Amino acid sequence: MGAREWWSAVARGRVRPSGVGAALEGCLVVLSVLYGMGSAVSLWVRSARPARAGVPVISVGNLVVGGTGKTPLVVHIARLLADGGRRVAVVSRGHGRRSRGVLVVSRGDGPIVPWTEAGDEPYLIALLTKGVPVLVAARRADAARAAVADWGADAILLDDGFQHTALARDLDIVAVDAGFPLGNGHALPAGALREHPLGIGRADLIVATRCDRARGGAGLVARTLGPLAPRAPIVETRMAPSELWDVRSGATVAAGELRGTPALALCGIADPEGFAATARDAGLSVVGEMVYPDHHAYRSSDLAAVAERAREIGAGVIVTTEKDAVRLSGWSPPARLIALGIELEVTRGRALLTEAIEKALRWGDAHG
Length: 368
Known about the structure:
Elements: H1 3-11, H2 20-46, E1 57-62, H3 70-83, E2 88-92, E3 103-106, H4 115-118, H5 120-128, E4 134-136, H6 140-151, E5 155-159, E6 171-177, E7 205-209, H7 219-225, E8 234-246, E9 252-253, H8 255-258, E10 262-267, H9 275-281, E11 285-291, H10 300-312, E12 317-321, H11 322-328, E13 336-348, H12 350-367
Parallel strand pairs: 1-5, 1-6, 2-4, 2-5, 6-7, 7-8, 10-11, 10-12, 12-13
Antiparallel strand pairs: 3-4, 8-9, 8-13
């Protein structure tokens, strides 16, 4: 197990280290205390005088670093708002992007800049939403104002905004993995928490993801986060395979067309454990897996290793996530490269989600 894999397993509470690992974890815990203090001060400073966008703002974020299904949730809510007649715009920071300032990723009809300029997640959101402008900026308030002034947005969906308290919001939604809502309970770097668990008390609504794969469904979320956020209802969801598409052509592929063809599952996401299982649920014959870190920028050496692995196992298909497909779009692999689309499906509490959104829109319209 490599260093990244070890950290991920420990931070998410899947492994209890011993020996040298336990000593290392102890050192990281000391750093976590300092990080937690710093993040608390930063949150307090940014929230002292939050900027207002002038329209309703709905924030979707998480308490831990990656792997909670936040992006499918953003896409789901963006579609709900657009289908309901709102001129919604998505505003994001654009993790890992090379550009600066406010950047328009999409006018509502797909990305108009490369993913390296937008960040992989905003680029993917732009691909998966229609009629929804997507903008990125380090200062989210600047992007929100631009969305309102230049694109006529009457609602802002703030991606990854739970800790970005510099922009006022009318609804704070937090996505949590039903199996590991707090990871190992420590903040970075000893754990995956972005802030102290008490921060969940700011949430207006908790969306538990992957409830179908968690023992007891959303029970652990209710037990661990319920007492910390008593006013936040819990919505239960799962990640359902939506479609398969050819990365090179963009064409939709029927699962039956690939049935029986050996497939290599390739992903670079924060929580990769369920990806191969989801690919199998979609009807693919997964016979091997390769995992890279979240937001991984694939180098030529990585692609050569993937190609070699595909040849070793006789894979006729390399199946990857939609987010990885963004970063692999220029690659010519030795096997057919297929992206597996994932959609968030609400399994319990749909009315809670829609009522919270409608209430926030009414409040934001009246007080924006």
